[in-house]
Amino acid sequence: MKKMSNIDLILIFLIGLSYTALITFFSPFANNEYLDGIFLFLIFIASGYSLLAVIYPDKYINELLKKPVLLLMLSAFLTMSVSVILKYSPLLMQTNLLIVVLSSLSMILSLIAYHRRKEILKPLKVQPVSPVADKSPQEKVMSYRQSLDKTTETIDQGRLKSVPKDPVKEKVEKKSVSPKKLSFTTNTPLDILVIIILSVLSLVTVSIPLLNNSIVKTILAGLFIFIIPGYLLMTLLFPGKESLEVIERWGLSVIISLALTSVIGIILFYTPLGINLSSILMIIGIISIILSAVAYIRVIKVPPSQRFSFKS
Predict the structure, then answer these.
(1) Which end of the chain is more exposed for a tag (fewer CB within 10 A), N or C?
(2) Max alpha carbon distance in the chain (Å)?
(3) Are 103 and 192 part of one and the same domain?
(4) DSSP label of 189
């Protein structure tokens, strides 16, 4: 196995370290907009790349850059997460602080990725096999006789077992055995059916005041905000289990769900409904039902053995 270079991870670590050092020890660079813009772009890409390297420690820069969509989504996810945390923290949202936090996060992720690569590429220790001592001529003769006796016994047992069957009984047995029918679970994508049921339940929960203030609404909101819309879109686009790796599918599901929720929130802000948990849950529930119907039509065309499911 060729030794994998870690120059990409070292470069990410140096980028993060250089910006932190510049604004810490050189005050003129602390409020430089051009410098902040350049480093914000670099750290934006570096954060997603370092997280991608953690997810795929066995892949090098050429293979990781072949996943640009996932890289950008991971970068956006990390940047949005840090921005939201800073906005609602006592530190408040500042460009310098955002870059510093992302730089620190990128450095930590690059170290984790380096460690994972090192563990994967660690050479396996091959234990020496002790040579087998040569047998004496007498032992060879004895072992040959024992193997011959076992072979004879096996042949005799086979002759005893090979009793001719009654042809009438064979015909009756063949008629009695009915052909296997495809069960409901093999033909129907149960994950989509479960999501449809949850979508209907979310609409019912929003409509009934008793359920609208219960923990059921909170649980459903968590599922629909973080997982379900993105999962349905991934199922619609990639119904086969070989199309995407499991980590990619679930990671993209979460990121797309959060992005969709953000867009819905912005749209609801300019509508009479306003932004609240009930309105968001209602809209996502309706969208999920539509996506489920389209995904069902798409998935049903794929053979059951090749479909992606929760068990994959």
Answers:
(1) N
(2) 99
(3) no
(4) -
Strands of 83-216 (E only): list them.
none
Please choose, from the candidates 97, 98, 71, the residue with its C-alpha nearest in 3D space to the C-alpha of residue 8. Answer: 71
Q: What angle do CA 159, 164, 167 make, to 5 degrees?
A: 165
Residue with tokens 């359920």: 211
The answer to whether residues 205 and 295 belong to one domain is yes
Alpha-carbon distance of 35 to 21, in angstroms, equals 13
User: Do 286 and 190 share a structural domain?
Assistant: yes
Given 70, 104, 120, the domain boundary residue is 120
Cα–Cα dist 232/229, whole Å? 5
Same-domain pairing of 116 and 40: yes
Domain annotation covers residue 295: yes
Specify the pLDDT at position 176. 47
Instruction: Check if the beta carbon of residue 78 is closer than 8 Å to that of residue 102.
Output: yes
Predicted confidence (pLDDT) per residue in 107-155, tens digit: 888 888 888 888 776 654 445 544 444 556 666 666 666 766 665 555 5
The mean-pLDDT minimum among 8-12, 143-147, 290-294, 303-307 falls in 143-147
Residue 291, C-beta contacts closer than 8 angstroms, at least 6 positions apart: 229, 232, 233, 236
Domain extent for 216: 185-306
Q: Quick check: 258 and 225 in contact, CB under 8 A?
A: yes
**24, two tokens:** 């810490």
User: How many domains are there within the chain?
Assistant: 2
Q: How far is CA 79 from CA 41, 230, 247, 278, 291, in A?
A: 11, 19, 20, 27, 28
- Report how far residue 190's alpha carbon sits from residue 110's, in angstroms, rounded to the nearest whole number: 39
The CA distance from 264 to 280, in Å, is 7
